[in-house]
Amino acid sequence: MTPLQVFLFFILFSSFSKADPLQDFCVADLNFPQGLAGYPCKSLSNVTVDDFVFTGFRNPGNTSNMNMFSITPAFVAQWPAVNGLGISVVYAEMAPGGRVPVHTHPGGTELIVVIEGTIIAGFISSSNKAYTKKLEAYEAMIFPQGLLHFQVNSGSVKAKLLVSFSSPNPGVQIISTALFGNDLSSEILEEVSSIDVAEVKKLKAMFGGTN
Amino acid sequence: MTPLQVFLFFILFSSFSKADPLQDFCVADLNFPQGLAGYPCKSLSNVTVDDFVFTGFRNPGNTSNMNMFSITPAFVAQWPAVNGLGISVVYAEMAPGGRVPVHTHPGGTELIVVIEGTIIAGFISSSNKAYTKKLEAYEAMIFPQGLLHFQVNSGSVKAKLLVSFSSPNPGVQIISTALFGNDLSSEILEEVSSIDVAEVKKLKAMFGGTN
Amino acid sequence: MTPLQVFLFFILFSSFSKADPLQDFCVADLNFPQGLAGYPCKSLSNVTVDDFVFTGFRNPGNTSNMNMFSITPAFVAQWPAVNGLGISVVYAEMAPGGRVPVHTHPGGTELIVVIEGTIIAGFISSSNKAYTKKLEAYEAMIFPQGLLHFQVNSGSVKAKLLVSFSSPNPGVQIISTALFGNDLSSEILEEVSSIDVAEVKKLKAMFGGTN
Amino acid sequence: MTPLQVFLFFILFSSFSKADPLQDFCVADLNFPQGLAGYPCKSLSNVTVDDFVFTGFRNPGNTSNMNMFSITPAFVAQWPAVNGLGISVVYAEMAPGGRVPVHTHPGGTELIVVIEGTIIAGFISSSNKAYTKKLEAYEAMIFPQGLLHFQVNSGSVKAKLLVSFSSPNPGVQIISTALFGNDLSSEILEEVSSIDVAEVKKLKAMFGGTN
Amino acid sequence: MTPLQVFLFFILFSSFSKADPLQDFCVADLNFPQGLAGYPCKSLSNVTVDDFVFTGFRNPGNTSNMNMFSITPAFVAQWPAVNGLGISVVYAEMAPGGRVPVHTHPGGTELIVVIEGTIIAGFISSSNKAYTKKLEAYEAMIFPQGLLHFQVNSGSVKAKLLVSFSSPNPGVQIISTALFGNDLSSEILEEVSSIDVAEVKKLKAMFGGTN
Amino acid sequence: MTPLQVFLFFILFSSFSKADPLQDFCVADLNFPQGLAGYPCKSLSNVTVDDFVFTGFRNPGNTSNMNMFSITPAFVAQWPAVNGLGISVVYAEMAPGGRVPVHTHPGGTELIVVIEGTIIAGFISSSNKAYTKKLEAYEAMIFPQGLLHFQVNSGSVKAKLLVSFSSPNPGVQIISTALFGNDLSSEILEEVSSIDVAEVKKLKAMFGGTN
Lengths: 211, 211, 211, 211, 211, 211
What we know:
The structure is a homohexamer of 211-residue chains. Chain A is an alpha+beta fold and 211 residues long. Among the domains of chain A are: 61-175, Jelly Rolls (Sandwich); 176-207. Chain A is built from three helices and eleven strands; from the N terminus they run βββββββββββααα. The first copy, chain A, has a five-stranded antiparallel sheet, with no helix packed on it. In chain A, a hairpin with a 5-residue loop joins β6 and β7. The radius of gyration of chain A is 21 Å and the shape is globular. The first copy, chain A, starts with 52 loop residues before the first strand and ends with a helix. Chains A and F meet through β4, β6, α1, α2 and α3 of A and β4, β6, α1, α2 and α3 of F. β1 of chain E pairs antiparallel with β8 of chain F, so a sheet runs across the interface.
């Protein structure tokens, strides 16, 4: 919104009043602009029990894609009730051979519990040490905030995971997509990644990058 | 530790040295005294991938008890890797008819995902409004920090839940146990709870309280 | 505010401008919707010294009620200047025999100073241990965040207390009112509280609950 | 503690053990070195209700001093139970004509309630605006974190105040003492304060400074 | 904004929509009212790389003023991209003999790096101890949050400094200006600062104060 | 430190005593084990002004290495005074053609100011959008917490940068080194990065990885 912009739109705060009692929670009202750590609160009079329930995991996405995995997030954008509560959750499935590529969450720690199947999971520390482990059903692993990590379905059946985060909006940056799915020039990418320019161009083609 | 106490015990810091690099995580060393928000860090040279993996959910407790539920926590005391990472996790089972009694977590928000079975779950707000819902498998519900909440197995099969918290050590206060399982006098309890003294005495007998 | 809602109300930001200097404080403007941790700031040009002064304790409520106590809060709703400053204050009076029933503050620690009279105060820890003490005038006690606690006037004169909180909006949940002052079914309440259904029904009648 | 220092003292951790349950509070053990935000916790087995009670306000200091006021703090050093709980409290008395000189609290907001007497209190904002007010008994005022503020007894009787802080250890820096009670050279002081060097030397004599 | 105020201005949220993805940053939209810890976020679709670049240090102010220094701040008001990121930066120049008068930052720690020249810098602790040092080019010094500190150009060439802060909006309170540049009465000022009333009046004249 | 370890080492706390006043800062004592957010404090009696001054930037490392850059960090390990103050600083030089490879800081935001030379700097958002810019001397750029970013010396003279962080210990993870400088198997790396296994093996050779 630039200073020159004419202010014409009207906001309906009809559901707010000074009499609104103070809240124990702050269900996000996604109609408002996002603030530093989340959204303003939906008026208490409009909040019902259904705000606190998330049913999206009952219909997860399919795994017929390049990485053979599906992710169903319940971050604040999908589940406004987590706004400001320091937690969120994701349900993931990986077909045999599927993987969650190397990625980071800039804003939070990830904690997975395997519900079905067998996976290999790992993270890499700032000391460049890899911590990897094969996990069976009902085993859990934690990936500390901001570090590179990945999961691979190493078994012969579909793997199912419940994934918690220490933030309602942890963010995600998949390394290959982040590097090769935009318009950064291949020459700069080669320079700052040490990956050969021919490989860079192949990866750009794969991830939709240009230049 | 009183000022008069003779200092006799010796601490072995053999695993620490000034050369220890800065850590991306802080696996708790439970041998040290607890600090404000957790424990000092285990020396990095002693940390292995097994610190980041929790296998305790593979052998949950049984549900043959008064409330017909079992709780297997992975808080910092059971899983030192969650120390300082703002998250922890619990696995719970409830036999048909079982329940998790009304309780609060003074230090964090709770987020449940039903894995199997059908439950009724609810919380009560500061405005004394009850938010309750029947949840099927793969549905999730959130209980904002510090508020009274409960779960009941309303189905005919064992219910299984994965429960995340926005703290490595959320604490728990089960209301009936907290009120009636100690030596608070029955007269004061009647006065501050409005529960009839005869009922108070019955509950004290049930929960092991005295006076 | 649903997406379908017609935007009709108009907001006057006439008192805001880009030239507004950055503020050392954030007196709440209660006309705006509440955010994650409080309210947006009143424009600096409208802030006067009277915003920082609270005079409500000069006329406390009377103590002619079921619990024989009066509470005069200076939380953010009553004193917008505490917004964002991590503190608030309450003045309380208890007639002889009066009490503040068992309650928790989901969002903060409570610290009381007795100004006049004699009270018995206590809290209960997660280990179900009761910490209780008789307090005289000019003695102080602290009740750590989120734990059950109570006060009883054990003397023969009116007790007066100043009560500070580590939050501008600590919330409060009085256990008996929270459990028995709503529409939770008596059967579920019996199940999750272990209190006999007849007693539950008696308490529901007392606290205005239904079902 | 330098690397060359010979390690001779012994610490008795006899009161700690891995079996110590997780705590709802962290009563400071002042025998340990201070950490970033406070002290390590006293072992739970040594904590009693008396840790949570502060009786020091019953015997406040006298007001026969240069500023005719007395301050009885209950910060973490005097009341270890406030450690980590985000709050502390002070009792103050000012004789008629007494004053609390201009000062700041680097680590917290101050909230006063006048119990007896009449004072003039004020703070100065970053915009150099003074917010001052005469306060009667049972009126409250808040001084936002880090800003210059002061109190003066403007009445004819002793004034009594209860003062809360949004930190267990807010710190205090009395401007005149901080500037003129040390060995900063008078020439530098004149330069950085714009106060005439003769006045600087007079103030140094008053506050015990040298150079 | 009082309840009686007529709502006439209109806000254009045309740049916001529910489809806005969650952001990794929160470039301040200074058109919105300030919140507790900063501003709401500019819509992601309006954010460009230029938001993340600050060019104001290329044209610093001149040093022809009473204190012979110039300050070019890149706080949130000048550089909206720092909003919510816990950091900001300032460029300062001091002519020979110039100084930054004694001041505090209520909201953050200051860290300086000398780029050119020689300065004397110092801060004063709560124990009234002065920590001062002569600094050459490429030496750094840190001034912990909220404490009184100052810098003086003690060399014969212009000194240049880069100054970082642990907050996007640390605030600043220059002691002499804060005390003597407003309408606080000279008598109260003498009382609360111990500075002679004649000197107070001289300083009021210098800093534009009245009364 | 395992429970079975014999406690033999002795700690000298000779420099600590209960009389130690509360501190305004917490200069790290690196002899103690690291805690959740930093180190315990050095005893105040051992703190001098030199603790608050860092001189390491006067002798930066040379740029004769693979990436033609040198980094001189003043994180808590090098400058214990930044402990707990939410800030740190680094001095960097890049020879012409030098670069800081793509990396993240898991624990903080980075803010650079170019002192000499011309660079191209950029970061990539969670939406896979690249924000890149050519920066001249005395221009600044900010890289929000946890996101991939890089710098390249695009000019013909040595570039000099001052780099601030919003944490005393932001951590750093250089992507190529993190992925290819350890013992993760080339097959898993290919799978989770989409980089061809031949290129993976070439990179492993370059960065010292095995398997």
